[in-house]
Amino acid sequence: MLEQHLFEARTEAEQSDPPVKAAALLHLARIWAVIDRPEAERLLETGITLAFEIPLPDGDALRSQSAALAATVSPQRAVQLMPFLKEPFRATTIIANMLSHGYLADAVSWLRNPTSDEQYPYRQAMEAISRSGNHSGNEESRRNILRAAVRARLCASGSSAPGFDILLASEWSLLPAEEAKAAVRNIVQRIVEEADGPTQSKFSNSDSGRVALFSSTRESHLFGVFSVLVQLDVELADALCCEYPQLAAAIVAFPHGYFAEFATGRPRNPPRESLPPNAGPDAQPDYITVGCSRLLPIPEALRTEFAASFDEALRLYALDTDSDNPNQAPRECWPSAREFRNILFKAGEHEGVAALRYLNRISDRDLRLLARIELLAAIAGLPQLGGVTMPPQSRPRFLPMEKKDRWLM
Question: How many domains would you assign to the chain?
Answer without folding.
Answer: 2
